[in-house]
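FAQ

Q: What does a record look like?
A: Structure on top, sequence underneath. For example:
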């Protein structure tokens, strides 16, 4: 029961009024595209300048003014291992404030269903692999991104508490590492794939003999193309209604060294890899158990080699790729 009393339950159909929070980011832009491609015509999107999600009064006024029925909460402060490890205060504060403002206002303004995005990095550092959803909060977190993980765990628990106490239909997804067109290619704040694509490209066009890879190259990571994630979020908004978070991934992983070799192939860099041991490896492994998701009838479709080739093409055409000398 929403606080505004009993009412006709809106269906997640073409005319459903949907707010995509964070529609300009890697994930939010892919979700907006997936929704439009799926025939949803009534999307509400706000840039950060139009709606500051860290401002509770502004978020309240927005939900007051707009009769939103479904929310995809893709807005967050995100980044790679270095950004998480050096901007610890922003990663916990910004993510806590965004999620508390949006989840609470959505409930109080009678939103029918909200989809929250966690991350595989909020599971315990040494969780049994592949990681099952039940592993959450069963052990210490990875130190380099603990502030972000604590904020995202709080978001998962907010959804659980509002569902249990108020009957608010909030679901939480736990996506694995994401990549794809529209990613952040800044070498300091980015995740590994855009960073390696940029470094391989720059080494190729400048004729450098090596490209630098952070850490030992031994950690293992699972990668899901962002278009697959977006497809999964639309599928789960329509088909998932349980309290427990649900993993979203491909269920297999590669070492950072194998990834760097795949990126070098995709870019056409033929030099050597130089491993920088002064940079952190982070979690040794975090591959997800996706049996629950697969049992619902969804599987990832885009292979890593195909996804890397597409990401490089996007970087050349729309990113700020260094031109060949
Ligand atoms: O993608 P990444 O920054 O995030 O790093 P995490 C993955 C692995 O790639 C780490 C190595 O072992 C990095 O040391 N790596 C190698 C590099 N070269 C590079 C490089 O040039 N740039 C980067 N960034 N990494 C994040 C969390 O952990 O996972 C976030 O900190 C978020 O909170 C994200 O959840 C999904 O997978 O280590």
């Amino acid at each position: 029961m929403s606080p505004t009393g009993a009412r006709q339950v809106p269906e997640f159909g073409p005319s459903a009024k949907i707010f995509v929070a964070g529609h300009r980011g890697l994930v939010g832009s892919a979700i907006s595209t997936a929704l439009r491609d799926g025939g949803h015509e009534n999307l509400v999107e706000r840039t950060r300048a139009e709606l500051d999600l860290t401002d509770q009064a502004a978020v309240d006024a927005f939900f007051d003014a707009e009769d939103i029925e479904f929310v995809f909460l893709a807005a967050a402060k995100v980044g790679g291992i270095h950004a998480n490890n050096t901007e610890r205060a922003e990663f916990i504060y910004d993510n806590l404030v965004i999620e508390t403002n949006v989840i609470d206002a959505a409930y109080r303004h009678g939103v029918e269903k909200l989809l929250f995005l966690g991350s595989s990095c909020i599971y315990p550092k040494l969780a049994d692999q592949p990681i099952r959803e039940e592993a959450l909060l069963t052990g210490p977190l990875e130190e380099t991104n603990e502030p972000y993980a604590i904020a995202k765990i709080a978001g998962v628990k907010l959804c659980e508490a509002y569902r249990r106490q108020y009957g608010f239909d909030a679901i939480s997804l736990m996506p694995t590492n994401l990549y794809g067109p529209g990613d952040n290619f800044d070498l300091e704040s980015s995740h590994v794939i855009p960073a390696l694509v940029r470094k391989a490209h720059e080494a190729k066009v400048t004729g450098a003999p090596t490209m630098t890879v952070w850490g030992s190259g031994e950690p293992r990571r699972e990668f899901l193309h962002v278009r697959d994630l977006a497809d999964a979020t639309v599928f789960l908004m329509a088909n998932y209604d349980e309290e427990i978070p649900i993993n979203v991934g491909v269920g297999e992983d590669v070492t950072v060294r194998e990834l760097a070799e795949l990126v070098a192939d995709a870019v056409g860099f033929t030099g050597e890899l130089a491993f920088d041991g002064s940079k952190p490896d982070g979690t040794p492994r975090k591959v997800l158990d996706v049996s629950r998701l697969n049992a619902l009838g969804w599987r990832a479709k885009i292979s890593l080699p195909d996804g890397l080739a597409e990401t490089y093409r996007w970087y050349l055409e729309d990113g700020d790729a260094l031109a060949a000398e």
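Q: Is there anything notable about this one?
A: The CA atoms of residues 77 and 94 lie 6 Å apart.
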